[in-house]
Amino acid sequence: MARAQTPGRQSRHTPPLAITAALLLSACAGIQSAAISTVAALTPSVEGAAIVAGPPSAESTAQELRVVQGPWSEERRALALYDDEFDPFHAFAPALGERFTAENYPLTGAALQRVRTPLGASVLQAKERFVRARPFVADASVQTCITPDERLRASGAYPSGHAAFGWAWGLVLAELDPTHADAILARAREYGDSRVVCGLHYPSDVEAGRTLAAAALARLHAEPEFRAALEAARVEFSR
Question: What's the pTM?
Fold first, then answer.
């Protein structure tokens, strides 16, 4: 596939409106603890709170806060704003090209959708367990690339849901399209790092998200339905 030029297009993908998907999408933007408990009651891929170790010490958090504060270039902050959208086709178009859309890759979309509920439940389970304040909540001087609402302020920072899903999507896409694996995984890392640039997460939140994504995908690969969805998507990519 041709590599897209710059991340400036609007996503043409609209996720299915199933209630669990809607809740999970809201969760990654920040939701109240009652809604978190509702989603976390779903069966997670792995026990999120058991896989990740928890936020670092206050001293380490202070060091991380300096990383969050940058400085960041305007170009990098613009990319972080682009990456605020929670959608795999939007996220990976910079690596896979403008033709990488839900309309052109429906079987790939179906495979990625199978990750959504179990990984989301794992992430939210860990968020509810650790309840870490986000950087901009802990320090009002932190500049964010978006205007945070109260739901985002109330939601836990650890682990990062965007980073978890970005890494999970990247791992799946690299498996489907190994020729472009390096570009895909570099983009997945960039997508997660954007949460730090955006002022919404600490670096350890992002790394914990990636750890949880890898563990969740390893578990999902044991399920015949997930493997079948991947195989169908692999055929789609080969065409």
Answer: 0.83
